Amino acid sequence: MPRARTGVVRRRKHNKIRKMVKGQWGTRGRLFKRSNEAMLKSLFYAYRDRRQRRRQFRRLWITRINAASRLNGLTYSRLIYGLKQAGVEIDRKMMADIAVRDAVAFTKLVDVSKANQ
C-alpha cells in the first residue's frame, strides 16, 4: 500500500492561514511559518482589544458626564450618588449622549441628583 502524503491537506491549511494575513508586510504575508505567527498574534490582539474598546468607551462617557456635571456645579461622583439615591436608572452611555446633545435635559438630571443628596 503506498504511503499517504499530506500534500493537498497541508496546502489547504497553509493557504487558509496565508489568506488570513493577506496584506501584511514582508514575510508575514508570504512564508507560512511567519504567517502563522502573525495570524495568531493578530487574533490575540483582536480578542484583547475588543475588551479594551469597552473600557475606553466607558472612560470617555465618564469624562463627558463629569465635564457636563461640573458646568452645572456638581462633580461626577456626587451626580451618580444623587441619581442612585433618587432611583434613576440611566446608564453612562445614555447620560453621556444627553450631556453632549441636550444640555437642558442634563440640567434636569443634575437637579434631580442635587435634590436627593
Question: What report would you give on this structure?
Answer:
The chain is mainly alpha-helical. It has one domain: c-terminal domain of poly(a) binding protein, CATH 1.10.1900.20. The chain contains 5 helices and no strands. It has helices at residues 7-20, 32-71, 76-86, 92-101, 103-115. The N and C termini lie far apart (85 Å).
CATH class category name: Mainly Alpha
CATH superfamily, by name, is Ribosomal protein L20, C-terminal domain
The counted number of beta strands is: 0
- Low-confidence stretches at least 5 residues in length (pLDDT < 50)? none
Q: Termini distance?
A: 85 Å
What structural class do you assign from the helix and strand content?
mainly alpha
CATH architecture: Orthogonal Bundle
Largest sheet: none
Helix content: over 70%
How many domain units?
1
> Remind me, CATH topology?
c-terminal domain of poly(a) binding protein
**Gyration radius, in Å:** 26 Å
Principal-axes shape call: rod-shaped
In percent terms, what proportion of residues is strand? under 5%
Number of helices: 5
Written as H for each helix and E for each strand, in order along the chain, the element string is HHHHH
Mean pLDDT comes to 93
